[in-house]
Write a structure and sequence with these properties.
Layout: E1 15-20, E2 41-45, E3 49-53, E4 69-73, H1 85-91, E5 95-102, H2 109-116, E6 131-138, E7 143-146, E8 149-155, E9 163-169, E10 172-177, H3 184-194, E11 199-203, H4 208-213, H5 222-232, E12 236-240, H6 248-260, E13 266-268, E14 274-276
Parallel strand pairs: 3-4, 4-5, 5-6, 10-11, 11-12, 12-13
Antiparallel strand pairs: 1-2, 1-14, 2-3, 7-8, 8-9, 9-10
Helix pairs in contact: 3-5
The protein binds zinc ion (2 copies).
One zinc ion binds near residues 24, 80 and 241.
Length: about 280
Amino acid sequence: MPNDTSSKLQKGELRFTILGTRGSMTTASPEMMRYGGNTTSYLFETEEEAIIIDAGTGIMNLPDVGEKRLSLIITHTHIDHILGLPMLLGSLRNRNITVYGEIRGGYTIRQQLERYLSIPLWPVSIDDYDVTVDFVNIAEGVSFSIGGVRIDTMPSNHPGGSTIFKLLYGGKVVIVATDFEHSPEASEGLISFARGSDMMLYDAQYTPDEYEQCRGFGHSTYEQAVIIQQKADIKEMLLVHHAPGHTDAFLDDLQCRLEAEGCKNISFAREGFKTVI
Ligand SMILES: [Zn+2]
Ligand SMILES: [Zn+2]
């Protein structure tokens, strides 16, 4: 894994890094490398904590987080959100990690991940890695804390379920709303959950035209992102979960369209983007 020499964070600072933001399936096309081909994984760091949301292939970009406590929060276990997990576990020698996720389909978060990390899908089981993994099942709609970071949750509108997270730290509020399909009711719920946030990651997998062919697939559009940003008064909107077929040129074009319409502080997220919130 690449060695990260990022500056030390001060108390109250929250650093956000996009490790991967492609949706549904990883892509290695040279035409997609600026926005990135790795699937969904996001890193939030404080002085003491390294909190990863989702374990898509982007998790292979995890920088060296030193002695920080490691936590992994899973929105849901669709394959694009967990594909990189074996690579993470293989890279953590003699470390501890706590994995959080909801019970789905009657399976605990551990059982869901074991279905992937077991023969015949994968030859190494979770217990075989040189890492201590603790699992925490989170109940729908609960709040919990990791160190000084408070995390509120709400259920997403997504086939099989997914969780939307709100991270609160140092007076800042960040929403992670990947794998969300808009509807009048779902969007209202998200608007009241997210109101006044500093940053939101929002699922904009489809163009409005594509969405017409993909209703019920559990994803949204940049057009809906603009509406939610305005109604919820979100300072910075990052559009995530890019469709596997959307090239850099295509996403650049959508970005230009947003700017031409006067939309501000909204952009298609790029792998490797890093900011202190
Ligand atoms: Zn997904
Ligand atoms: Zn999904």
